[in-house]
Amino acid sequence: MAEAAVVAMALQLERPSLNEKMVGFLATPAGVAALCAFVERAGDGGDGFEEDETAARRRSFRAARLLAGADETEGLVSFLDDALAEAAARRLLGCFDARTRGDARHATYVLERLFRAAPDAVYAACLDGFEDAAARDADDAAVAPPRLAALLAYCGHGCVHAFFADLVGGGVRSDDAEDVRGEPTCAQTRPGPPSAAPSPSSRWAFASALARWRLVDVLARRCAA
């Protein structure tokens, strides 16, 4: 795949950046998938040596910067339509699946900025698979949205808990700070509104899914455990 080869070359640079030609090339289903794949494979150390895993995480971080932007530069998320934003969110939410080797911190960094730009698309990705699960259990039993359940399981890690709270509250934390290693840090300020407000239908669908999941009860049981 040409997009994967171009992304792999770009991620060899210490601080890869986008230009107009790169945006046109990568703001496509194949381009988005190629970038997200490096975040999904962040824990893939190849032959198992420590330096290989370190290199994989370095590529993941650079891919996250290209997607989300950094240092006042726009990332690819600013140029994605709703369909591509949803596709990117689905891939990145897959990093929280216990069967993957993705980097949750890098995935969250991009997801936060996707939620700012295209909240409806992120909500749709979060509910992917929920309707099927609810249909299989049509009675009044609690049904967990699979992607949200996986996200909640990671809430003890880094910025994940803040992003989860942003989703539930419909707000986005303003966080463009970086830590001393150059990696994005978790938001420490009060959450602000998305640049694009979630639609009422998206908020209703998300709130309905949380109610069916019985999230308050789930959180109470987690706290009591």
List descriptors.
single chain; 225 residues; mainly alpha; 12 helices; 58% helix; 2% strand
The rounded Rg comes to 17 Å
The chain-level structural class is mainly alpha
Main β-sheet: number of strands, strand sense, barrel status?
2 strands, antiparallel
Counting DSSP H or I runs of 4 or more residues, the number of helices is 12
Order of helices and strands: HHHHHHHHHHEEHH
Strand content: under 5%
Given the C-alpha coordinates, what overall shape results?
Answer: globular
Widest beta sheet: strand line-up: 1-2
* Uncertain stretches of 5 or more adjacent residues: 45-51, 172-181, 187-192
Distance between the termini: 47 Å
Question: Short description, anyone?
Answer:
The chain is mainly alpha-helical and 225 residues long. It is built from twelve helices and two strands; from the N terminus they run ααααααααααββαα. The chain has helices at residues 2-10, 20-26, 29-40, 50-68, 82-93, 104-117, 119-126, 130-136, 146-153, 160-169, 200-213, 215-224, and strands at residues 172-173, 191-192.
Describe the structure.
A two-stranded antiparallel sheet has the order 1-2. The chain has helices at 2-10, 20-26, 29-40, 50-68, 82-93, 104-117, 119-126, 130-136, 146-153, 160-169, 200-213, 215-224, and strands spanning 172-173, 191-192. It has 12 helices and 2 strands; from the N terminus they run ααααααααααββαα. Residues 45-51, 172-181 and 187-192 have low confidence and may be disordered. The chain is globular. The longest helix is centred in the first third of the chain and has 19 residues, at 50-68. It has 225 residues and is an all-alpha fold.
